[in-house]
Design brief:
Pfam families: DUF2460 (PF09343)
Protein name: DUF2460 domain-containing protein
Number of helices: 3
Structural class: mainly beta
Distance between the termini: 7 Å
Strand content: 25-35%
Organism: Nitratireductor mangrovi
Helix content: 10-25%
């Protein structure tokens, strides 16, 4: 896991984030050949989430709160946590987190360190996304289906999503290590300025507040 540069472990105002729009972005190159057929290449291995928090603004108080948050992050300089309103759990949003939600590794009798991750899809086409910003206290871990105790059997770093087992609880050879969790998305502001007009806001025009995911 790469070291996080210029990151503040604070969360963007949750009430505003729940009204935001956005989601995963894939950068692919599509070339149409003279035959009419297409050649498609993935420009990046991972998707990157992008949001517009402006759609979550409902009042002047919200505007002020975002402006203060923007200033405290020094604009685009410091990253921060964002609560994705559509994708914030290891399971479907309508379900409760379970310690068997996601496979994060298989024991070999020696390795005690596992990275939280979430899979989308099934089989060889599944996409595995690293989860680096779990919500503290939400992580549940199981080994071969048996839930482990945080603190006694394992610890989790909320700043990196790394799960470390105690020596006595090291997963044995072939044992499935699974986890369930809630998480935030590491993002930064994707604009050098907040373009806010009081007259436009009162007229019903929503300001644009772009955010973009920071990949580990």
């Amino acid at each position: 896991m790469a070291e996080w540069q210029a990151f503040h472990e604070v969360r963007f105002p949750t009430a505003i984030s729940f009204g935001a729009t956005g989601g995963p972005v894939r950068r692919n190159e599509v070339i149409t050949l003279t035959s009419g057929r297409e050649k498609r290449n993935a420009r990046f291995a991972h998707s990157r989430r992008a949001y517009d928090a402006g759609t979550g603004i409902r009042s002047l108080e919200d505007l002020y709160e975002v402006m203060a948050f923007f200033e405290a992050r020094r604009g685009t300089l410091h990253g921060f946590r964002f609560r994705d309103p559509f994708d914030m759990k290891s399971c479907r949003p309508d379900l409760d987190v379970s310690p068997t939600d996601q496979l994060i590794g298989t024991g070999d009798g020696a390795n005690r360190v596992f990275q939280l991750a979430k899979s989308y899809g099934e089989g060889p086409d599944a996409y595995v996304r690293l989860i680096a910003k779990p919500v503290e206290g939400s992580v549940r871990v199981a080994v071969n289906g048996g839930e482990m105790a945080e603190g006694a059997d394992f610890t989790v770093d909320p700043a990196t999503g790394v799960v470390t087992f105690e020596m006595a609880a090291t997963p044995a050879e072939g044992e499935a290590v699974t986890a369930g969790f809630e998480y935030d998305v590491p993002v930064r502001f994707n604009a050098e300025a907040l373009e806010i007009s009081l007259a436009s806001f009162k007229a019903g025009q929503i300001p644009s507040i772009p955010l973009v995911e920071i990949l580990p």
